[in-house]
Amino acid sequence: MLRYAFSTLRFRKGGFIGAFLALLCAAALITACGTLLVTGLTGKIKTERYAAASIMVAGDQNVHSVKVKEKNGKKKVKHKAKPLDERVWLPADLIAKVGAVPGVKAAVPEREFPAHVVTREGRIISGPDGKVSLGHSWESAALTPFKLVDGTVPRAADQVVLDRELASRTGLKVGDRVTVQATGAPTAYRVSGIAAPQDGDLREQSSLFFSAQEAERLSGRVDQVAVIGVIPEQGADQAELKSAISSALEGTTAQVHGADDRGAVEFLGASKARVQLISMGGAIAAVSLLVAILVVVGTFALSIQQRYRELALLRAIAATPRQIRRLIGREAAIIGLVAGGVGAVAGLPIAVWLHGKFVDFGTIPATLGLALSPYPILAAVVVTVLGAWAAARLSARRVAQIRPAEALSEAAMESRPFVAKRLIPGVIFLVVGVVLLFVLSILHTEPASAPVTYLCVIMLSAAVALLGPVIARAGIAALSAPLRLSRISGYLAVANSRTNLRRFSGALTPLTLLVGMTCTIIFVQSTLGHAAQSQAQDGNLADYTIASSGPGVPGEAADKVRDLSGVTGVTEVVRSTVRVGLDKFQIQGVTPEGLDKTMDPGIVSGSLKDLADGGMAVSEVAEGIVGGVGSKVEVTMGDGTRVPLTVVAVYDRGLGFGDLTMAHDLVAAHVDNPLSSAVLVKADRTKEELASAVSDYPGVQVLDGDQVESLRADQQQSNAAVNFVAMGLIIAFTAIAVVNTLAMSTTGRTREFALLRLVGTTRLQVVRMLRLESLAVVLLAVVVGTAIAVATLTAFAIGMTGSAAPYLSAIVYAGIVAVAACLALAATMISARISLAGKPADVIGARE
Which residues 6+ apart lie within 8 Å of 559 measured at CB? Predict the structure, then answer.
């Protein structure tokens, strides 16, 4: 059978191109997603600042949960850990413990905080290419190491050393006066020196160095250090030294990291990005695989349908059902092996492109390099081969089991009845899809809702694939009257569609998936973003918003506005994340005084008056996890500090204001950047008067009150862009499947077109017939795909926003429909030109 399989492939190349392309795209997607997944699991994070320290001591950046279960007299310990978003600081007394370990030449403390140079024009300078700018104590310069190239070290509180790259960009030199915006009010310093790293300028950050006392003041962390870098004595064994330091720190929460882990200590964002890549890569791979199965099964079904006459003839000359299945299975395995190999290699540049886009969006830092591994390639090839084999065997079941005489009869008529057996799995998929819609409507968090959302679309699209002939029959019946307005071409389009419902439904499935999946991916983000913006807008009572183009708004600027007459409310807002148990929540810290004048989060129970006295307000979504008014909760702040709080209020505008609300000073004390992201002002003053009050603060500007929503919308749009790029690959794959399926369907009808032309139908009439058939498929696919998308989006909106009204854009929707129509018409018309190129008599003769 293997020899016959190769012979079939050699003489029927055109019939297998469609299946080959579908499998190739599937393998490329699996490789790309698998590479992202491997990067999250094993990707190395490069270090910059800590290049000279072979061992780093840092705080435990995870919150832990340990559960002990006893079953049949045996105890089973289950340990879970989730990452924290802010830096976990260490007690300063650990420096002496680390320094006393034999083999340690120096234990170097690091204090790290935001610090930006301000130009004479008031412009705040960021790091290279818009990246971070950080302040440090000069004693930590040895961790890189930085060496002075000019001037002296900073000894006084008003002295600062700049790195060479930053000094070059700003034109500053030793002796110049410079304003620095750090964690408080902007302060003037004298440049005492210029320093440069030993191995070249840093690419991921700018560095400003202060005296030890000033660095401690600016960090806001008394008797604490961010990390401790270990410079070993010459010849010290690294493994033994790491073990000795771990023993010396036993009983503390400090963790010891070797040379391979220094990057994760330096770049906390890279560690978070690894977790995000694991979840994102896994989710995209899972959705891609399900879409691929749906597409590949349909492609093979169409391929086998076009070979029905050939396979029927094999049955007629005594080929057994087993031999037919083995032949088709081996053909598919060969195609899958070749397509999988080519697609797996093609997936690598896609992975590189995705990694680059995520770096551009700021989702992952450039220091987290792409990890290339053979495992995603092997997995793509294996999955492609097995998927092709299974899809082909599944599609060949009917032709293999049918009696030879019936097979020839059906092949001659080119009409096969709808198999009732497909009703059962079709109804099962439909029921599963409906159940998932119900589940989706009761999910209230985006991480939980996202995978269920896309699974709903796939399950309902699978139901369409199985029930396609039934849907096609109903659709053709509804469209027959308008189609017949074109006397000849319309009549032929209706007759052909009714005669071959399988072919019609085969083209319907990928188009339905394209419309449904595209609408869902796009409008999920718009629904969530619009709901969040609406809630924030409805709850914003402020007349003005004070924001900053730099790291944030200093508290001194808010105090200046607070002291003005006519100002009735000033609310400073700082944002972060916390964990209650292992559950992660977005929080806002707000100044309680005058809060009712600037903000209305929609209180449904309790009051915000006790927020400053160990109180916390929660959204209705968080209430189900944290508890209602009066509940005592231990909250793990972003830096790992555990704080007992009491729930004093519950509000219903969680999307607009975050799931938890706490006092501003509490949140600001446990974040890396304590400056306010926004200050809301209620005042009977003009914007110009407020701007004059904060004119001494670089980068600070006064905006209209409603512009606070646009500031949050920018962040939401950045997050949405990541999802669009990731899921856009699936949309592209589905679009290719649409073109592929329609092209296969049209080129497989060459004999039919020749017969039509021999009985007197003109070439133009055949083209018009195909155009009307394509429009009928597009119209039905748009209706069914839109129904799937609307049902899914409505369930999503009910769960996430509490409203059964998803936010849809008519212009975007029209664009989706137009793209689907253009793809369908282009694939059909181009294939039709090829199929109609030959003379009808020659085509019939060649086919016979």
Answer: none
